[in-house]
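Ops channel
N.P.: pipeline sanity check, posting one input/output pair.
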């Protein structure tokens, strides 16, 4: 009986993976009320579960050579705070103030925000003393959002920006260009970031320096 139980538990853990919990900590605020009416915590948890699967697939979590994070539980909360959202450790925080004031398709926007933040949960950042540029970290998160077709606009933006690591849309579209030339580039870059950061990763993975790739990219889309 004991052995049988052990097998059941192990299987449960493998299939269950990471769980996601959620709470709206400010349900009475305008943003908290609006959040509950357009999406709700259950709706957000469902999107976050999809986002987690999408991001893990994008980072090739099924591949044995991918260094993987092991996370038991991700905590999502809607909070009375400024800004849009952020991820720290295994927590994702969404701003009720942002929800209250956003104009446009709020559900679509929130889906995109949640995919972006879920990417931060699973991506590697390099290491202390060898951390990836923040613009690259944000660019990878928006790259996932772009791939999920959730609100990173390509129209008129491809080829924009003055530095490859400017972040967000600029870097996401540049990474998308490199990834089109070298499929799995972003997944491979993320694997390398487990060990720290080096600009040479671009050279290692594509045969061209990041400056050369950026210059090719600018030339192609200017
Ligand atoms: Zn971010």
């Amino acid at each position: 009986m004991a052995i049988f139980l052990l097998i059941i538990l192990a299987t449960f853990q493998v299939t269950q993976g990471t769980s996601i919990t959620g709470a709206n900590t400010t349900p009475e605020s305008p943003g908290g009320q609006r959040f509950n009416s357009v999406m709700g915590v259950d709706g957000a948890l469902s999107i976050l579960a999809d986002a987690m699967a999408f991001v893990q697939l994008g980072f090739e979590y099924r591949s044995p050579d991918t260094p993987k994070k092991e996370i038991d539980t991700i905590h999502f909360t809607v909070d009375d705070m400024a800004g849009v959202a952020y991820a720290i450790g295994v927590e994702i925080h969404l701003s009720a103030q942002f929800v209250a004031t956003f104009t446009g398709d709020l559900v679509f926007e929130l889906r995109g925000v949640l995919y972006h933040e879920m990417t931060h949960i699973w991506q590697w950042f390099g290491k202390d003393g060898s951390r990836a540029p923040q613009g690259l970290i944000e660019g990878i998160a928006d790259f996932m959002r772009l791939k999920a077709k959730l609100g990173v606009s390509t129209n008129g933006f491809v080829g924009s920006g003055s530095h490859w690591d400017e972040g967000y849309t600029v870097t996401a579209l540049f990474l998308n260009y490199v990834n089109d030339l070298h499929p799995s580039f972003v997944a491979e870059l993320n694997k390398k970031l487990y060990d720290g950061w080096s600009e040479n990763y671009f050279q290692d993975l594509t045969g061209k320096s990041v400056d050369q790739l950026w210059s090719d990219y600018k030339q192609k889309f200017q």
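N.P.: looks fine end to end. The pocket of zinc ion is lined by residues 116, 120, 138, 141 (CB under 6 Å).
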